[in-house]
Amino acid sequence: MAELMYQSPWRALAPRGSGAGVTAAPIERRGIATVMARKGRIAELGAAVQRAYGIALCDRPKRVSAASVTFLGIGPGRWLAISQRPELGFVAVLAAQLDGLASVVDQSDGLALLQLSGPALQSVLEKGFQIDCAALAPDGCAVTSVHHIGATIWATGDGGFAVAVARSLVGGFLHWLETSAAAGGLAVAPDRG
């Protein structure tokens, strides 16, 4: 039986220009799931997440994190749950913990995550994102578009941002990022996980 080999969606990510105006670091092999609360079950869902992860789930565009997971509010009664470390089985465990309270859909192979930081980051984000990313609170997040590509962006609390885009659209996103960041330089860092 043939085994599938993991290939990073960011394998084409490479430094551009000189300097490090923006530093990009792939976030690899994370468990990712969309969590959609069942009708009338948000309070119970919040209690289940609190018991399982010690997180007070917010039903608004906000990032809340614990040691093992981050929840991003991506719409009314909807979150994107991301494991903090590469973990096999994260989505299955999450689905079991939230059974009957939410629909949990595995996005681990469908979304690609990238951490962005650097002194030129804000000016680069302004070149493509349809929102003022600087206005996001330190734990804010938004579902928007960049260069006509659907994206979820969130502040990471350290002055940087992380972005989730469809894995199939990484090439278009990289074209925008490399072009927009080239003037100040695009550096590449390894996964922090």
TrEMBL record:
Pfam families referenced in this protein's UniProt entry, alphabetically: SoxG
Name used for this protein in its record: Sarcosine oxidase, gamma subunit
Organism per entry: Rhodopseudomonas palustris (strain HaA2)
